[in-house]
Amino acid sequence: MRNVLKILTCLFLCAFFACQSRSGFLPTAKPESVGMSSARLQILDKIIQEAVDHEDFPGADILVARRGKIVWRKVYGHSQWIPEFAPMEISMIFDLASITKPVATATSLMILAEDGQLSLWDRVVDYIPEFVPYLDEDAEPGEDACIWHLLTHTAGLPDYIWELEVLEEYGNPISLESLVEYIAQLDKLYPPGEDFFYSCLDFITLSYIVKKVSGKSIAEFAKENIFSPLNMRHTFYSPLEEFYPRCVPTEVIDGRPLIGVVHDPLARLLGGVSGNAGLFSTADDLGIFAQMLLNEGEFNGVRILSPLAVERMSEIYRIVDFAGRGLGWDLNSSFSTNQGNLFGPRTFGHTGYTGTSLIIDPETETLVIFLTNRVHPYDEGEIVSLRSRVANVVASSIIKKY
Q: What are the residue ranges in the chain where pLDDT is below 70?
């Protein structure tokens, strides 16, 4: 009887771990097994806990992986301070803010390009007739911006518009079509391709192009073509109420923290679905997505992008190399300090205003996902310096480069 129980237990465990493997989560391993130092990684405990104790942000969730295996996975501090203290827990759901740009919007554009549905050299005006060009000092129109200009933040659009600018004309909520029409008619700051100016408006415009070409919102398209195939079960726009208990609160507005409601004001005007922000996810799901990119577009037998598409997204776009940007990803711009000082020139990633960060280094096959809610409770948290220091600790823990 005892042997039968052992056999049944063994079969159960085998089935359990097989299901876990099929679920897509990255496996765990000791740091030394992938050429990293446990002692070096333990420094993360000290510097992150010091920041939490200093109240730079309520709490954090960090995942470090190398060669497809998680070597450091911890949470720190609290998920919220208001209306009451609550602990941070593993696999809580974060408002990713601008990490939405590369993960949802840019990836969707590249899928459409691979499917022959559009070209990145297509003019924006071909999809949005209202998109006015740059006017020189003599009021003469310049060249038209292309889709790749939007992806590299070189289209000439302003960085943002505040919701009060559009509320009076369009009301709340506003349709994507109306907001993009408003954005399209804004004066352009410079001719396309002549300067870099990080702009949320670029990616709101791109999400409209995704919708116009595919007939689906960015939320629907990304779910069907990226998140569901990768089994990223906790990555979505506008979380259902059943997920609210797992959502990390952000800023307190009108006396209540935003829980499961996007922090970005323009994304809120759009009902939570936008190309610049609005995506919610966990560190584990982002680990799957990042590993897919390290695997040249494939994960667990599911291919999302071709190897060449991943290369083009994750290298500095040569036509506007001064921008330091790839097609959606940040490599060497003024916004890339989250990569630290030790990772190499092929490293790419992105940050989010709410306190989120994603770093991917193809050279060492390393990824760093560092999620905080630094905007809770009153948008006063500090995270920029710590992001860089976290990256340096992880990079320094790599003791066997190959």
A: 1-24
